[in-house]
Amino acid sequence: MSAWLGLAGQANAEDITFAVIGPHEYDLPVDFKPFNALVQYGEYNSGSRAYDDRGKRQQGPDTDLMVGLTKYVHFWTFDKLPGVGFAYEYIQPEVRLTGPGLKASGFGDPLTGFAVWMKPSRNSTLGVQSFVSVPIGAHEVTNDFWASYTSAFFDIEHPLGSIGGNVGAIFRGNRHNGRDPDIDKGNSYHANIRASLKTKTPLEPFLSFDWQKNDASRYRDGAGLASLPGHDVALGAGTVLTLSKKVAITARYSRSIDGRNVTATNAAYLKFALIF
Predict the structure, then answer these.
(1) Cα(179)–Cα(42) distance, rounded to whole angstroms?
(2) pLDDT at 61
């Protein structure tokens, strides 16, 4: 899903918020009986390149970031609110980062929150989701700050294809761990779009667009910037394999085409979804 992953209070690894999503992520029903979903996301990013303050691509930190996101979702409706759907989600990250002189792993800070949506038309969905990141992850990979993830999402379905995605922001609190200087963490803003082509077969190819802008972070004692402002723009391609109405697997590769003060995206993504 995303994040600045704090590593022993010294290093950071970054990926684009919600870059793990696939097509139909927000193709949601209304007026349904309660049901559940279990989703496992996986990401591997090879941080061999980075963008400097001038936006020039150069040799990166040579890190390998592996992130798993295990998500449980409960969906329900209210009889007195016809045409509106609700969901509660709990997301548990699993993180591993390796590189020269660096090795950190563990359960990351969990995210939990709600989503609500409606269908302006039979084949479209429009909604809002909001999550809070709780800094209780393992010592090596916790962010050491609270954060709020809020975004608007949409989905449009057509017999020939689909398009969907989200636009949102992450508002971060003060990083305080008792070991390092306190930092006012900068906020971020993101957009994620997926466009697919329906082939009337179990395979559905798609293209992805991911963008994120990061504000600067500042030391609270007035010592200056803890991180510079930056951005990342990544394009990708993949496919959805639908095994049944309740089981689907999504795979994708994505790569940065523009950036500033970030490790370049060079990532493979995998998603397994089960509805029950």
Answers:
(1) 31
(2) 86
Task: Count Cβ atoms below 10 Å from residue 274 Cβ, excluding itself.
Answer: 14
- Nearest CA among 238, 208, 249, 244 for reference residue 16: 208
Q: Say how far apart CA 96 and CA 140 lie, in whole Å.
A: 10
All residue ranges of the chain with pLDDT < 70 are 1-14
Domain ranges of the chain: 3-275
Phi-psi region of 24 (alpha: psi -120 to 50; beta: other; left: phi over 0): left
Q: Tell me the sheet residues that pair with 248.
A: 242, 273
Closest CA to 264 of 8, 6, 9, 16: 16
Tokens of residue 18, six digits = 């919600």
Q: Which residues have a Cβ under 8 Å from the Cβ of 241 and sit 6 or more positions away? A: 202, 203, 248, 249, 250, 251
- CATH assignment of 3-275, among 3.20.20.70, 3.30.43.10, 2.40.160.40, 3.30.300.30: 2.40.160.40
CA distance from start to end of the chain: 22
The dihedrals phi and psi of 21, each to the nearest 5 degrees, come to -70, 160
This model's pTM is above 0.70 = yes
- The CA distance from 10 to 214, in Å, is 19
